[in-house]
Design a protein that fits this description.
The chain is of the alpha/beta class. The protein is built from 15 helices and 13 strands. The protein has helices at 25-43, 66-79, 92-102, 109-120, 124-138, 170-196, 214-222, 265-270, 272-279, 295-308, 329-338, 353-365, 382-389, 410-424, 426-432, and strands spanning 7-15, 46-55, 83-86, 105-108, 203-208, 239-244, 250-255, 283-289, 316-321, 343-344, 368-376, 391-397, 401-409. The radius of gyration is 26 Å and the shape is elongated.
Length: 433
């Protein structure tokens, strides 16, 4: 059965000025509205019109000014519009005034992103993270017009914590927020334990703007059947898979939620346990949709978000994806000169995937040391760990010991040294346990 999609109108505000790159505020707003249209489509509504208001400043009461807001009222009646989506965050006062004047659902960019996350969250962790972000977003915005947040209402902007209705007071919501934060702290502790179990391997994390092709690249690298869809925020939950390289090295590769401009700060905070995969990574793989008109702006958004969550000074491989969609080869050559060491590929068509594996192996190789070690018979249980963490090149046995020559990463070598220390000092091992 086909579901009737709500009619939506996009609303942007252009503050009249020219930026350093020569673009006007209006040009930037148009680009942002193109992305907002994709968000609204992903959320399940049909964009039938867009409006951009030119003003010198933001109107504190109606954001776009009362006169323009009255035009939206006329448009709602004339074309039977159920939904108006603003590209910028609205204050609680602006939201209340617009809803009272127009009498239709008013959602800002943060609201639509939260709605998409709510509809796409699959695991208990993701649902908890999204619900917390939604409640924090909704708390200052509780008005009589927000009855569409109840489960009894349908359409865009209604997914998420259904028990939150107009008669729910702020105290109940704050209690729910406290409960969810406690639940996420437990999830965070569980994730920390899981990460400790993976410490024997170097870790790489895929990062990038939403819809840059991270999940498709994950599939090409590891064969992992993750959701691959040409839509914004197709993947919310972090996925970790083992990647074997030609150099006999193995790394753990994680795919995390994509970033987007104006990402709600509540969402970033709520997804802390998921984004901690980035904090633990030894290598970042920054996937860029090079076919997108504003790909460099998108790169800037990703870099800014990484700084916001505290990810700095991590070796990064820039991957320019979707090169099969770029007909201008001079553009790619210019990027190769500007970003030496970048990898150009097409994950969808499996073009040049091997080059990325070589770059990963090269970075890991820089950290590899070759060591020789003699183990007594009572220490030979360590051989299995050394085989797992590195590459054993040679073994020589005698009556009392075995001497091995092996290649291993510096971090893993430190763990071998700790295991050796514990094996020679039983009292230390008991203390560690």
């Amino acid at each position: 059965m086909n579901t009737v999609r709500e009619k939506a109108v996009l609303v942007g505000l252009s503050i009249g000025r020219t930026y350093g790159n020569g673009e006007t505020s209006r040009a930037i707003v148009d680009d942002h509205l193109d992305e907002l249209a994709q968000l609204v489509d992903t959320a399940g509504a049909e964009v039938i019109h867009r409006i951009v208001q030119n003003r010198a400043t933001i109107d504190p009461a109606f954001f776009i000014g009362r006169g323009k807001a009255e035009e939206l009222l006329w448009l709602a009646k004339e074309r039977d519009i159920q939904l108006f989506v603003f590209d910028d965050d609205l204050s609680p006062v602006q939201l209340r005034n617009l809803e009272q004047l127009i009498g239709r659902k008013i959602i800002d960019r943060s609201g639509i992103i939260l709605d998409i996350f709510a509809s796409r969250a699959r695991t208990s962790e993701a649902r908890t993270q999204v619900e917390l972000a939604q409640l924090q977003y909704m708390l200052p915005r509780l008005t009589r017009q927000w009855t569409h947040l109840s489960k009894q209402y349908g359409g865009v902007g209604t997914k998420g914590p259904g028990e939150t209705q107009i008669e729910t007071d702020r105290r109940a919501i704050r209690a729910k927020i406290t409960h969810l934060r406690t639940k996420l702290r437990k999830i965070d502790r569980d994730r920390s334990v899981q990460r400790k179990g993976r410490e024997n391997f170097p870790r790489a994390a895929l990062v990038g703007y939403t819809n840059a092709g991270k999940s498709t690249l994950m599939y090409r690298l590891t064969g992992s059947e993750v959701l691959r869809e040409n839509r914004l925020f197709a993947t919310l939950d972090s996925t970790v898979r083992t990647l074997s390289l030609e150099s006999h090295q193995r790394i753990l590769l994680s795919d995390t939620v994509g970033f987007i401009r104006k990402l709600p700060h509540h969402l970033v905070a709520s997804f802390k346990s998921t984004l901690d995969e980035l904090l633990e990574a030894d290598i970042l793989i920054h996937v860029v949709d090079v076919s997108h008109r504003a790909f460099e702006d998108q790169m800037g958004v990703v870099e800014e978000t990484l700084r916001e969550i505290g990810v700095t000074d991590v070796p990064t491989i820039i991957v320019f994806n979707k090169t099969d969609r770029v007909s201008n080869q001079e553009k790619l050559m210019a990027l190769a000169r500007r970003y030496p060491g970048a990898v150009f590929l097409s994950a969808a068509r499996a073009i040049n995937i091997g080059a990325l594996k070589e770059r990963l192996a090269g970075i890991l190789e820089e950290d590899i040391v070759e060591e020789s070690l003699t183990l007594r018979h009572d220490q030979q249980h360590l051989l299995a760990s050394i085989h797992e963490m590195g590459q054993v090149l040679d073994k020589k046995f005698d009556e009392e010991s075995v001497t091995i020559r092996f290649r291993i990463g510096r971090k893993e070598k430190g763990r071998v040294d700790q295991m050796l220390l514990r094996s020679t000092d039983p009292q230390r091992e008991e203390q560690d346990d």
